[in-house]
Fold each of these.
Amino acid sequence: MSDFMFQRMALIGIGLLGSSIALAARQRGLVDHIAITTRSEATLHRAEELGLGDSYHINSVDAVKDADLIIVCTPVGACEAVAKAIAPHLQPGAIVTDVGSVKASVVRQMQPHLPGNVHFVPSHPIAGTEHSGPDAGFAELFINRWCILTPPEGTDEVAVETLHAFWTALGSNVEMMDPHHHDNVLAITSHLPHLIAYNIVGTASDLELVTNSEVIKYSAGGFRDFTRLAASDPTMWRDVFLHNKEAALEMLGRFSEDLTALQRAIRWEDGDKLFELFSRTRSIRRSIIDAGQEVDVSDFGRHLRDGETHAKTLNRDDHEYTGS
Ligand code: NAP
């Protein structure tokens, strides 16, 4: 009897998320064989150089053959094409999941193509950085990060529990959610902040009154915090907004109204209004720290392990999270 949770894990797409799953699953001894497939020869070759898997396939069909866990780690917009391609070749009883930052669209894209004898349990690990590609992965990415599962109604409970156990073993805290609710929550906590960052960095680079070199020189004033989010992968984020359009527009509408109110407060020198808002928002950061999703020092929101100092965790890796 094997000790592995899965015999063969197929990773479709081997960027930041795919490579982090490969490294974490290997480190924790969760899977026997890791089969890797991706769109381009160059990325596949790099994954092989990095030793991320046990077998490498340019055709996704070869990777999913005999796999009992399939994880789609491509941008959200590619999910339907992937589901169509792999569906006829899936082993009965296999668990199919993904890591997409949007959930209702992924369910719409994939579910109709998947055969009834496999278990489809979409996932979204709320863990990321602004880096992409197979070199960006690290085994600790999921530690103390939430992973949201959005199983469609009627999904086999054992399959959900098995995937829950897998993400837990990778270090995540797992929660269940309806896909539409997930998309609303993420629209305000992740998608809108990224859009604001892309926008402010774009605005700054288009200014005539202030030069680009001044923006860079004095970026410690706040601007640089936005630049990290705005350095995130353009393909991934294009797909997030195209596939979470309604929720993103809803949150953007609310945001624009509130911004207009702030604009008015500045114009009419309504200091009380500004002070009241700035005091209220300050306490949100405290709540995030209290929830263990950030710390006052820069160990990137992870709790210290036994015997570790912050200096040691800083040496463990040098990644900063965006949690997208
Ligand atoms: P990534 O580093 O850019 O890697 C993407 C992978 O998908 C690459 O292997 C790429 O292949 C492949 N790919 C790209 N376009 C494709 C297409 N049209 N068809 C098939 N394969 C394609 O991306 P990532 O950051 O790992 O993100 C992957 C997924 O995780 C996304 O859905 C994203 O929403 C989600 N996610 C990301 C984060 C984050 O912070 N980055 C956090 C949580 C969830 P080639 O290189 O071979 O072209």
Amino acid sequence: MNLLDGKATSAKIKQEITEKVNEYVNKGFRPPHLVAIIAGNDGASETYVGHKEKACAQVGFTSEVIRYPENVEENTILKKIVELNNDKEIDGFIVQLPLPKQVNEQKIIETIAPEKDVDGFHPVNLGKMMAGLPSFVSATPKGIVELLRHNNLSVSGKHCVVIGRSNIVGRPVSVLLSQNNEYGNATVTLCHSRTKNLKDITKQADVLVVSMGKPNFVTADMVKNGAIVVDVGITRIKSDKTKSGFKLVGDVDFENVAPKSSYITPVPGGVGPMTIVSLLLNTWQAYLSNIK
Ligand code: GUN
């Protein structure tokens, strides 16, 4: 078993981004600037946005968080988005999901200018990705592909089984892995809550990507010997073994699946750091187009 170390891989990519930022700043350009909007009191969202801010500072980007209370009106956020769309000093921005129930997420996403949509959630970016055109690819699917690529793991000709069909992870990653390019060319099966005989399918997987948000769902009997296992799940559960009283667990029963796999991502330290660094890569891409 080899660990697919997202922490180490993302550190390498961050170093490369830092060098490029320094080069541009030394030439007299301003650094890249990312804005995050967060509405309500979702604890996980606060943690994620905190990680994103910290990562920006590490590579020399500037960043800003705009916060709204739980009872914010949809229109307030829409107006702010239009303002950010028109601000030349902002290269990209994200609206952290989930949003309070009175706010229509799809309307919010569709108001973001596609060229500033560094989360890659706008239908224009999703459509371009589907067509294999240059676009912002959402951070988690991009991070998974980058993690495999940086560890010299080709999926070409392999059977990739993805569990979970969300717009943010499952569906886009299944498109990327099946695309006709050097990072794709896999045969992909997309499984979800209505899939019958799930275990029969997962046992055929050369590469298993799990994104369902159910702690320890994938057990050793569901995994083929030598499979590459990518665990996107991250759930905080109570634990009497840690100081905080909580621990983070993935969707894969790591302890029992790891010995069977050829490569496996840990949780934490696998896909999570790759997601953050992919947002930085997207912001860098937006910056280069913006400062032209
Ligand atoms: N909520 C969970 N993951 C994400 C993400 O990657 N971006 C945003 N904006 N919200 C999220």
Amino acid sequence: MALILDGKKIAGMRLEILKEEIEKSGLSPRLATIIVGSDPASQMYIRMKHRACEQVGIGSAGVELPGDATTEQVLKAVTQLNKDADVNGVLIQLPLPKQVDTERVIAMVDPKKDVDGFHPFNLGLLFSGKPRFTPCTPKGIMTLLAEYKIELSGARAVVIGRSIDVGRPMSALLLNADATVTLCHSKTKNLAEEGRRADILVSAVGKAHFVTSGCVKPGAVVIDVGINQLNGKLVGDVDFEAVKNIACAITPVPGGVGPMTIATLMENTYRAANVQLCDTAW
Ligand code: GUN
């Protein structure tokens, strides 16, 4: 039976440490979120983010726009938050409704307030090997791997999914940590074969039971980013019951990657407050 990588516990510990750091710093970091529409999952994520802010002593404010908001309206909200000196971090909950140009909205966020790390400037720095703000889910996974002292240098890492928020930045972070990285996607041939080469396998696909035991090398570390509903239950991308008998370590869903994402958002927001104090730190 694999070691369970307990994201909930590690995130809780990180939040406690962060709370003390913020208290000692004398800073009052502040996060502003924007949500467009009333998607229940997005609303739940936003609530969780605001609750985490409260837990660590970060101020938070939420802008809510109607589901039929235009790109211009969302851009205006972002611009106002960019200008607001009391706001250190700006987060736009994704996905945005179809009529809104997500790329333009993300590019409008001040890179110094980009706590999600999705701005092309910050993604460029990450891919150049000199990250400043890094997307929270992959950075949280790196923290989890580090907490469990999982060796990355020289390891074969396979990432499944090439999204901007997880797959692509995950591959960059693993590469920056000296892993040999393969990034797989919907057009990859023989995905199971690629998976079986991995010492570290990260799945960010969004399909229940996508990663079966036939995709996993005995002794691999398996990271499950998926959050899917299956028969009324929350499950990841990985067939946990089968894969836990093959892997040496595995993240559960829920309680694995999700809490690490939120803890990392809090860390990024505190960091934003620090870098905005002193331009040379940027
Ligand atoms: N929607 C799903 N994941 C994320 C995330 O990491 N950040 C934001 N802003 N929206 C998301």
